[in-house]
Every structure is written in structure tokens, then in C-alpha cells.
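Private note to self, pasted from the team thread so I don't lose it. C-alpha cells:
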């Protein structure tokens, strides 16, 4: 071997990851991807702001963060008005997509980016650089066949701008999200990742809480959900851990019920432990939350965000398969829901949640070529 070969330093591929700011699920499901990229010797940069940035900085304080404005979608107070509320935000959303695409051109040049991974952000593609788009919503539920077809065509138009589309679900009939990620018409760019979860199952663990409540999602529905639960917990007799899903909020909130512990946020390690220390979990039916619960084999009561059709479909789909129990937020009763959940025949399947590592390894190998 020549003497010069000892002086060759292997090039670390610089990969930019940008999760959507629509709740915290997009950020948390990027955590296992980031970990695996680091294992594969990549240098990871993260583009985010506000709660998304706070959450990921807590997990990866050593990484470089680049400010990138989110879409900042807001929900309505009433389910009935949500479609109109979202529709009125479309012009601002399209402008945000345009702006992030222009931002990417500058970021690539300034930071010498080798590849891009976008979790549901539409404008982060660039000709000549490998770009990955992550989504499980190949079919966007609107409760109307015509608008679903239109939404799917628009979504596929953006997907085709990317080199590949990673779908965090399992290929074939035995899967998590049903027709959300297995519609009749699929793109030829798809690679199914398998499940994504930042958590690890602990085989033997002592129960500490009767109930763990984990909430997040866009406002104002996050706060509405929180207020409903806190009101009904005043007279609850069991022990409760209440996680508000506010990683950038340092304020302390207390309940008159001394058996309730309220925290704004927990790290992945802390939440991983707390969920498994609980008999039941109450949460939204966000897809990332569902994948976490599946990996931990945890009994849960899912309450979809009102008007968010994807969460409503997913909760119903999983209840039909006897995986999780599902309740609507409207007229929600904590005591009644817990009583019904105790009689529910939970049948939580054990998926192989490590498949994504092979996909990421192959992706990194392709960059070397």
C-alpha cells in the first residue's frame, strides 16, 4: 500500500433532513432515520423551526440545525369548518412551498449538501442531487371520491419531483395503514421502509401509571383536547402521566388532582420508558404514534383530531382489526372509554420494525457510487 493512501480521508456524505411541522410526528419518525444515517457514517443537517427544532435538538444536540420556516397550518375549533379552514390556507401553503424550494437552492450551495430527505415537505427537491420524499399518505382521505382522486394526482405530481419516495409501512396485505399507503394506483418510485419507531421494547418492566396521556398536533385542537382531558381527570382515582407535547414550552402546569403528573415534554428515552410503565395510553391516532405503540405492543385508546380524515380513517381501521380501541373526541368520556377498553380484545401484531435500516444502508451505498 502506498504511503499516500494513509492520508486519504473518507468523504462524509452531508444529508439534509427536513420534517414537516404539522404536529410532532414527522419529526419523531425521522429520529430512527437520523440515528441510522449517523451509524452509516453520514453527516446530518436538520432544517426546522419552533417545536420541531426543539424536539430534534433535544435528541441530537451535536448536529447542525438550519432555520427553515414551516407551513404553520392551523386547524379550526369546530370539525365542520376544518375543510374550509384548510382550503383558505392553500395560497399561503403554495407560497411556502415555492419559498422553501428557493431556500433549498441556497442551502445546497452554502452547506455542500449531497442528498436531501424531506418528510412530507413538497418543495425540497433539486435536480442533480438525490432527494427522498417520505409519506404514508399515498391516498389522501377527503371522504369524497372525486376530491381524493384530485388530491392524489396533485400529491403524485410532487412525488415525481423526487428521486424516490419512502413509505413508512409494510408492502403487501399485512400492513399498518391500509389503503392510505396501499391505494389502487401507486407510483413506480415507491420503496416501502417498514415501520419507523424511535422506541425500544423492554421485556420486563414494572407498571407505574394506570394511564399515560400523550398529546400533540396543530393548534387549537391540541389545547382543546388537553382541556377536555384535564377537566375529566380532576376526579380520576388512578395514577396518570400527562405529556402535553410542547417541547419548546418550559412553563409548569399543575392539576388539582395530586395523582396526575403533568410534563410539557419528555425525551425519547423517558417517553419510551413511561409508556411501557403504563397500563393504557390515550393519544391521537397520528401515524407515528401508532407505529410507536405497535413496536411497544402497548394497549391504547386513540382519539383522532376532529376533521383530520387520515387520523379518523386510521383509528377506525385499527379498531376493526382489534389492534387499538378508538373513540371520537365529541362527547368523550374518560371513565366510559376506559371501561370499554378493559373489555376490548386487544390483538396487537408483532411487526419487524428494523427493515428501514436496510433501505437506508442501500441509500448511503448509492451515494458512494
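Design output:
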Amino acid at each position: 500500500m502506498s504511503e499516500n493512501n494513509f492520508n486519504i480521508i473518507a468523504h462524509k456524505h452531508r444529508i439534509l433532513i427536513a420534517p414537516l411541522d404539522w404536529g410532532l410526528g414527522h419529526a419523531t419518525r425521522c429520529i430512527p432515520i437520523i440515528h441510522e444515517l449517523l451509524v452509516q457514517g453520514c453527516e446530518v443537517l436538520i432544517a426546522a423551526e419552533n417545536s420541531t427544532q426543539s424536539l430534534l435538538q433535544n435528541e441530537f444536540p451535536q448536529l447542525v440545525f438550519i432555520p427553515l420556516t414551516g407551513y404553520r397550518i392551523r386547524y379550526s375549533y369546530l370539525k365542520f369548518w376544518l375543510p374550509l379552514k384548510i382550503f383558505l390556507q392553500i395560497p399561503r401553503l403554495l407560497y411556502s412551498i415555492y419559498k422553501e424550494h428557493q431556500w433549498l437552492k441556497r442551502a445546497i450551495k452554502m452547506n455542500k449538501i449531497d442528498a436531501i430527505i424531506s418528510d412530507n415537505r413538497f418543495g425540497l427537491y433539486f435536480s442533480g442531487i438525490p432527494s427522498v420524499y417520505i409519506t404514508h399518505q399515498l391516498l389522501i382521505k377527503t371522504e369524497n371520491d372525486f376530491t381524493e382522486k384530485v388530491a392524489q394526482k396533485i400529491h403524485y405530481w410532487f412525488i415525481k419531483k423526487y428521486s424516490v419516495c419512502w413509505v413508512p409501512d409494510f408492502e403487501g396485505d399485512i400492513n399498518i395503514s391500509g389503503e392510505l399507503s396501499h391505494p389502487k394506483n401507486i407510483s413506480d418510485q415507491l420503496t416501502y421502509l417498514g415501520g419507523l419507531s424511535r422506541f425500544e421494547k423492554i421485556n420486563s418492566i414494572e407498571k407505574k401509571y394506570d394511564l399515560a396521556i400523550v398529546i400533540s398536533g396543530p393548534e387549537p385542537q391540541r389545547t382543546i383536547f388537553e382541556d377536555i382531558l384535564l377537566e375529566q381527570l380532576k376526579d380520576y382515582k388512578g395514577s396518570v402521566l400527562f405529556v402535553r407535547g410542547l417541547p419548546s414550552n418550559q412553563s409548569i402546569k399543575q392539576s388539582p388532582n395530586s395523582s396526575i403528573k403533568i410534563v410539557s415534554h419528555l425525551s425519547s428515552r423517558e417517553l419510551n420508558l413511561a409508556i411501557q410503565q403504563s397500563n393504557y395510553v390515550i393519544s391521537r391516532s397520528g401515524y407515528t404514534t401508532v407505529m410507536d405503540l405497535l413496536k411497544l405492543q402497548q394497549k391504547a385508546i386513540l382519539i383522532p383530531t376532529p376533521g383530520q380524515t387520515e387520523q379518523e380513517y386510521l383509528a377506525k381501521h385499527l379498531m376493526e382489526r382489534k389492534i387499538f380501541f378508538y373513540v371520537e373526541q365529541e362527547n368523550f368520556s374518560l371513565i366510559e372509554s376506559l371501561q370499554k377498553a378493559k373489555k376490548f380484545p386487544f390483538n396487537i401484531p408483532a411487526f419487524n420494525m428494523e427493515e428501514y435500516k436496510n433501505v437506508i444502508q442501500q441509500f448511503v451505498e448509492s451515494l458512494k457510487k
